[in-house]
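Dear Dr. V.,

Thank you for agreeing to look over these. As mentioned in my earlier message, I'm a first-year student in the group and I'm still getting used to reading structure tokens, so any feedback on how I've presented them would be very welcome. I ran two proteins. I've put each sequence directly above its structure. The first is here:
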Amino acid sequence: MRLLFYVGYQSEPFNKSLVESGLGLGGSEIAVSYIAHELVNWGYQVSVAGAVKPEHYGGVRWLETETLHRDYKDQFDIIIAVNYIHAAVEFKDWHARKIFWAHNTDYHPWYQGQALEDSQQYLDWFDLFIC
């Protein structure tokens, strides 16, 4: 099973190496890095993409968004969007199950620097929600 965690935008790109260094990252970023690593241990192929620093660490592939769209379209069985509702637009034409993980108390309604109008409509585009 091929899984993609899409983490959207960050003020500073991150990856597992930065998480391990103890730098002050948010809870969502830390949770994604640890869950991704554990899923690899269970036999899944896992990638994390968005505003990240590219690397391979512990079997997890970390991809910048541009690289993801250029080289990996339709190569995932499940896309897990973390906090950013714009993933519904970002991956609209991708053939994968789509899960929205609201790790925070609310989702982020931004896409390419603009607030999505009526962003709640995009919730219908996901197959499953995790809160």
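The second protein is here, in the same arrangement:
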Amino acid sequence: MKKRQLIFLLKFLVLITLLLGGYSTHKFFLESQTIKIANWNLEIFGQAKVNNFGLMDFYVDKIKNYDIIFIQEIRDNSGTSFSKLCSMLQNYSCNISSRAGRTLNKEQYGIIYKDSVNLISLKDYNPDGKDRWERPPIEVMFNTKGYSLKIYNIHTKPEDVKKELEYLQSIISNKGNVIIFGDLNADCSYYSNEKENEFDSWNWIIKDNDDTTSAKTNCVYDRIILNSDADEEFKDYGIETKGITADVSDHYLVWVELKI
């Protein structure tokens, strides 16, 4: 083979390699664009847990695995516990709902999200003039990299699960990407997803035979429910159990991953 032909062939092979490599990199970049969203009922998260430094470090290590995470059962009259948790997280922003509940044990929902995620709007249904929920839901709209997502977060009263889910269904607009997230107490003696019909046309990601409690009970109280639009982007879900004992919380952390 002549030297000129050999040089041309080598250049051609280099060009093909670069093109294929670039395509693979581009394809990988596109396929790797996902968002991970979680919910965690921290079981009476207040001053006692904040003052346990080892426990707080454990919470932070778990939270850092997610782009967005909702924290439930924040109970703190001083209103400082959640802000202390947020101060331990770098490159995250936080927001919190109003204190809600019909008894003295009022709770709040905390929202933690990476700085790369934009919180567009937050609607707090508390106070609810119609008294429909023990702890009224919040509605949060996010946008990240052009992907918009609306999340409803709620901690239902165990004895009123069906009624509270009916009320929740009545206020939700099933347009765009919508997720219902939270400790819905939607299992065991409180609710039967198989028999009831709330959000029947939606995808209940966490299965009825899963267990989201660290206690001796075997119940899937924590739920993730996607409407059809959000379900098109569904990639994976999980129940994080590692290291989560009864001292940490009586609930496991639940998460979903979406393609964006």
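From my reading of the second output: The chain has six helices and twelve strands. The CA atoms of residues 15 and 21 lie 10 Å apart. Does that match how you would interpret it?

Kind regards,
E.
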